[in-house]
Write a structure and sequence with these properties.
TIM Barrel; 9-stranded parallel β-sheet; 48% helix; disordered N terminus; NODB_dom; Glyco_hydro/deAcase_b/a-brl; Polysaccharide deacetylase family protein; signal
């Protein structure tokens, strides 16, 4: 029976990951202004918030069957979808209020919105009065947000069957929503790459830019790097950065009977090899973890660190398209945890494009140790 149950769980997990929606990206050159001041960041932010709100509003008009068909699923968890939508509306409303603070400097996309109900009403007719200056942006933005919303709602529809980063399962889980407005945390997963590879180049680049990131490592790959190099190589690799864990191997911890051993082993490895860089954060592969894991995490003094801005750099998007996706989501959510893959060569050029595009925008980068110490 145990074997049959495990096989069923595996099949359900595979079904949940089957036929993924192609990742969304938006060509930022379609936006007619550079993000070269805090006020212009707010203009673009207000526009993306209203564009996404329009798509979110339209999705609520679909009946269950139409929504399931749109998401490519036979069955959907409507209760979870409604909860995720409600969280999105709350973040949009709070974000728009922050973005309105600069309306005296530039009134573009400034509407007299005094409640979330006002936001919903304005979103419903948003595309009708954006002005000629922004007409080249409005439809591509609409298409981006429709696809991005489908990505998120598809994950919400599968909650209860497959956990993901769109839902926090306990009070020990964080996703970046606790950050201050305009603050972002860089995170990288899946590493380290072999010696001399993309992780080495990326950490050097971060130090040159005086930036910090949290690297969530796999125990097996860290062990391989340690055994293949001199004793101080890992400390030099991650100097100035933070290192959390993803477990011993890149495998879903939701149905894995050895998930606790995976976390313990990886944690002990990082604590021993990188005591100065270690932070007590666990990034679950695929965002999948157990709903009953809170007590274990507390016993290990760990917190689950999720993300809310995914570069999708491990798929078909180019480095620039991944960066453009990230910038659009930064404008939309105005704060959050960004996820990239340091084992992939696309990560560094994507980061370089991202930093160039936001250098004068007034955003800030959260210190990785500061984030780890947040309660």
């Amino acid at each position: 029976m145990r074997i049959a149950g495990a096989l069923l769980a595996t099949l359900l997990s595979l079904a949940a990951q089957a036929a993924p929606i192609p990742p969304a990206s938006l060509d930022r050159s379609l936006w007619p202004e550079q993000l070269d001041s805090p006020a212009l960041f707010d203009v673009a932010s207000r526009a993306e918030i209203l564009s996404f709100a329009r798509v979110l509003h339209e999705s609520e008009l679909l009946d269950d069957a139409a929504l399931a068909a749109r998401l490519g699923l036979r069955q959907i968890n409507l209760q979870k979808i409604r909860a995720v939508r409600a969280q999105m509306w709350q973040r949009l409303w709070l974000g728009y209020q922050q973005a309105q603070l600069s309306c005296e400097q530039d009134a573009s996309f400034c509407y007299l919105l005094e409640s979330m109900a006002d936001l919903r009403t304005t979103a419903a007719t948003f595309a009708t009065d954006v002005g000629k200056f922004y007409t080249g942006w409005i439809e591509p933005s609409y298409q981006f947000h429709a696809r991005y919303l489908d990505e998120q709602l598809r994950k919400a529809a599968l909650l209860g069957q497959t956990s993901s980063e769109v839902e926090r399962l306990s009070s020990r889980e964080r996703n970046g929503d606790e950050l201050n407005d305009r603050m972002f945390l860089l995170t990288f997963v899946g590493g380290p790459a072999p010696a001399g590879g993309s992780t080495d180049a990326l950490t050097r680049y971060l130090r040159k830019q005086k930036l910090q990131a949290t690297f969530f490592v796999l125990g097996t790959r860290l062990q391989q790097r340690r055994d293949a190099g001199p004793a101080n190589a890992l400390g030099q690799l991650y100097a100035g950065q933070c290192v959390g864990i993803q477990g011993w191997e890149y495998r879903s911890h939701a149905q894995w009977q050895g998930w606790q051993d995976s976390i313990r082993q990886a944690q002990a490895q990082v604590q021993a090899d990188l005591p100065a860089q270690y932070v007590p954060l666990f990034r679950p592969p695929y965002g999948q973890r157990r709903a009953d894991g809170e007590a274990f995490m507390a016993s290990q003094q760990l917190q689950v660190s999720l993300w809310d801005i995914d570069a999708q750099d491990d798929g078909p998007l180019s480095a620039e398209a991944s960066a453009q996706r990230v910038v659009t989501l930064m404008l939309l959510w105005r704060k959050g945890v960004i996820q990239l893959h340091d084992t992939l060569p696309k990560a560094q050029p994507a980061l370089e494009w991202l930093l160039r595009s936001t250098a004068q925008s007034g955003i800030g980068w959260e210190g990785c140790h500061d984030y780890a110490q947040r309660q």
